[in-house]
Amino acid sequence: MGKIVKVGVVQAAPVLLDLDAGVEKAIGLIDEAGKQGVQLLNFPETWLPGYPWWIWFNPPAINMQFAAPYFQNAIVAGSEQDMKLRAACRRNNIHVVIGVSEREGGSLYMAQWHYGPEGQVISRRRKLKPTHVERSVFGEGDGSDMFVNKTELGNIGALCCWENLQPLSKYAMFSQDEEIHCAAWPAFSLYAKLSKAFSPEVSINVNQIYGVEGQCFVLAACSVIDQPIYDLLVKNEMHEKFVEVGGGYSRIFGPNGAEFGENLAHDAEGLVVADIDLGLISHSKTAADPAGHYARADALALMHNKNPRRPVIGFGEATSGTGDVAAKGYSPAEELVD
């Protein structure tokens, strides 16, 4: 037996293109988790204000109708919406990792914000490389976004969607003694009818293998496409082939690949909650620690540039810092008011 942590993952539809309504729904889910005694809650990818599914099955000219509303509803660090989320975390004494479309200046980023139980901002990270057509909407993160936070619950890391497939990105996280991994995904209903590469089974297996490879617990949060989102996206028979209602497959996996918690139906909304025993990690590490005794640095090694990449650097200004919100260009933590 080791440290027992009660964790939860969200499986729910976002309120697409409505940031304020989405924040209220997120607060409701945080409050629900708080009532259940959850200590760490993980949300899906870009859950605020929802994932831009239209980029996968429309020409760019058609997608321009969504560009301004999506940009305007992206969340800004230090905003009123940010403060409301932080207040909810403090009220429930809970860690929350939430996937957001983050707006800074004239650009958007696929981000994961980690709030602490006192409502503090522990970290804000950005997806290192948006996948395929996501690059038409979002900018890139950098090496400083690949970090693991040491907390009272354990060492907590986070990656978005297909970052969980990237061998070097995974290894960068494993090397930092990651114990609890927060994986953020959109709904697994896009292209599910057409391509095995996008099938729910493949993505579920990615999360399970991440836990086995890194000997860590994986909290895989997956959103849902509900009827309002479906009606917004699907306008013809061709669109019907690309997306379907549902697609929620949130899971909790252990370091040996075992599942924890009670899974929901793929079209249901709610939380998957479980007590996890961090002591199980040592059993798996004994057999294979990928960045420790099972590594061969003389033959294979990873080079990780942890310095933030900025378009403008002042003379004499420091650029180092991993997971440090100040070093990444964010304002210092604002006073939190309920």
UniProtKB/TrEMBL annotation:
Q: What is this protein called?
A: Carbon-nitrogen hydrolase family protein
State the species of origin.
Answer: Yoonia rhodophyticola
Q: Where is the active site?
A: E45 (proton acceptor)
Q: Record's family?
A: Belongs to the carbon-nitrogen hydrolase superfamily. Nitrilase family.
Query: Per the database record, which ranges form the CN hydrolase domain?
Result: 5-278
What phylogenetic lineage does the species belong to?
Bacteria, Pseudomonadati, Pseudomonadota, Alphaproteobacteria, Rhodobacterales
Q: Name one GO molecular function term.
A: nitrilase activity
In terms of InterPro entries, this protein maps to: C-N_Hydrolase, C-N_Hydrolase_sf, Nitrilase/CN_hydratase_CS, Nitrilases_CHs
Gene3D superfamilies, per database record: Carbon-nitrogen hydrolase (3.60.110.10)
